[in-house]
Queue: 2 jobs
Job 1
Amino acid sequence: PGVVFTNNASLTYILTPVANSQLCNSNVTPVVTIKNWGSDTLTTITISYFIDNNPVQSYAWSGALAHLATTDVTLPLLTSTIGTHTFTAYTENPNGEVDPFTVNDSATISFSINLTVVTLPQQEGFQPTPFPPENWYYTYPNPSNRWKRVSNAGGFGNSTAAAKMDNFAGNTDISGQVDDLIMPNMDFTIASDSILLTFNVAYAQYDNNTIDSLIVRATTDCGVTWTTLFHKGGNLLSTAPDKTTAFTPTATQWKAYSLSLSEFVGQPEVKIVFRSVSNWGNNLFLDDIFIGNPVVGISNLDVVSFINLFPNPASDFVTVSLSSELKPADLKISVQNALGKTVREIGAKAGISDITIPTADLSAGIYFVSIFDGKIFYTTKLIKD
């Protein structure tokens, strides 16, 4: 306000529920930020709040909030239903007086509740046009620059769809912006110890001073606690040379990652989040996400540095090219489908670098090629056209 009033409060933010978020239970405990715009210390205020058109609830706050100071207030729990909702909160009666400036007294956000728990395997290539995909959701502070589906980039073959985070953002500085692309709750109780997360990334830096990042996190308690599975940024995340114009990947400018999720086996609800942290750099793309059970004994390694498949996607055959770390040992090579069933199994003698596997009779879809060197499995993804 341009004029400083004696008693003047505002509701600055709704912190919980997070705007555009999806909750995995029906209980909502709102948290809001209030600010004292008045010249007098704010000692009492009424905070009113409600979901959709339900009855208004009131909470009497008391404290000692100095001029221009803020504080976060946790409101009593509300219960809602499955679906999309709005939450509104507003302030009234600062220090028992009528607020003379009400323009900044209220805020409204949208959120949804989804109690669905899906089974494994889960696979997403962003081919259907609805975005986010069914049972997925995303959070975004800036509607102009957020995760979205694009049809001009893709990880493999004729698949050109992918999820894109616009970090380039034209003339708008979005440094520090955090955007989450969130998978549905998944049931890991029937999974074996070899459960695996694979995904493909494409990214180019703007320059060395603009380090955008991708973080992959998991939670088993609806976001109360998190485990970081993957965190790369800048040139460690790059799959293409630096680019000072908006980046769109070619088919060869992708990198596949494979992460073990074995620590979550037995959990009834697991949620995976792909988080973009922007530094106003360049565009980040995500594609071909898979969570399932390809083989026993997967290691949590960046397997692309050990195994290269070509062509990929494959039609009549695929050649497995091995790094020097794997050549000294006799190897067992197997191919599994998305359900974990072995469809090929061959052996290779020590010192062999390239092994060709016939694939003409395999159905189109996602497969996993696994190399066992006598100690550990190394696994990477194969696409069959």
Job 2
Amino acid sequence: MTRTSSPILWYGDLVDFGTYSTAVSNNSKSNEVSFSFELDSVKIDSEFFWTEDGHYESSEREHLGVSFEIVIGPNPIEHTISRPPEAERTAVRRLILRSVVPEISFEMSIDSRQRITELSIDGFDVIEHFPGLSLQIAQGTILPELLFVTKEEESRTFARRRKGDGTISRALLELILPRMGVADESELSDQILSLLASRSLTKEEIRSAVASQSKSWKNFVYAMISNEADSIFYKKMRSLIGVAVLSDLLSRVDQQLRNILAGVLYIGPARARSERYYRYQDLSVSEIDPDGKNFPMFLNSLSYYQVQRLSDWIRGLFGYGISIRREGGHISIDLMSDGHRSNIVDTGYGVSQILPVLGQIWWARSRPPLPASRQRQVSLLAIEQPELHLHPAHQALLADALVGEIQSSPDGRPPDSRIRFVVETHSETLVNRLGELIGNGKISHSDVQIVLFEADGSSEHVTTVRTSSFNEDGELVNWPYGFFQPSML
């Protein structure tokens, strides 16, 4: 949500982790923070890539089951050794990516100047071929971009945006030329560029990529692939091709991860208290604030029919609907029940606290689709303590609201676009209601996971994290005895 000069913003509008030194666990021996992610599918389908000589077509490739880990650490600023720890800047220290299809691994180590000191691909360190390789984390990105530049080029703006295929092809040429001993270096260079353009990482793909090339080049590649005794040379060549794949993969993974994280909506625990009247504003509100303060203006931005649909949805769950009343430059929110209308202030405090939550749940699935450039796709809705100030029966109904959204399939949207919910709660009623809904077949037990955070009895500074779940009958599995009860001394 905020552009930063470091990978992580420790303090912002919604979070306050202090500084890096206070965020790292006291028990950490490495003084590092690691983030791990797994993506089911990352597609590399660039229309072209750059070399110094022009554009080359790039084939579409899909990498399945990509997992990666980002490790960040303190980056001390030079010549300021007296700078206090809370002023330290954080930077990427290590980056690991693994692809399942095709199977290949990448691991980078980065120094305090964001220079890559090690680039290991399937166990081969190829950094000696790219002495000027460094990283750049642009504003709005999560993963870094590889920069293939020399010291002479660092001052040239366009060079810092150039892809590295030309540099990689030269490294491949230096590796292959002594083996082949050909006279026409330019022809070999073109053939290497063609192979690089295919982004081939398996023996079958490499054979196919060179099948239409010159006989000498094809015979050389075929012999290299078939010669098990010379497998080291093949692995080195594959590793250099892998550098080009890594450059594309970083960009695509970053794009996909940003799309996922940008699609997170959040409702906090402390929501704004309702008022009897709100000053009318000509605002177009497309999202509800984490504290729900702009909920009246959000309702005012909806069309008459959208308000009616939201009201009907809430009525089906809680037995009352909502409406907007506009009078003399002010608006108010009314509750409708059994033909009676009452201002929201004249009802229980819990209603004012749950309405922004219900509105966010409904809007995340019901808002009309817009082009990606104008509106992000919601992927996850995070709700913190939605049960606050709610009657236990209404806490159970809140579980019904969540499950109802998981079950529903909006028109024209594929099943894999369902919203995921992360709900932080202390409500025993809500947890038990989920088990009841599972037992009644309203939701699959595999769609619910419970993560428990408990203070470790051995140390007050350690939190134990364990997972629990429901079985097919809706019964809790691996649930700690007495979790909802005070400890007996």
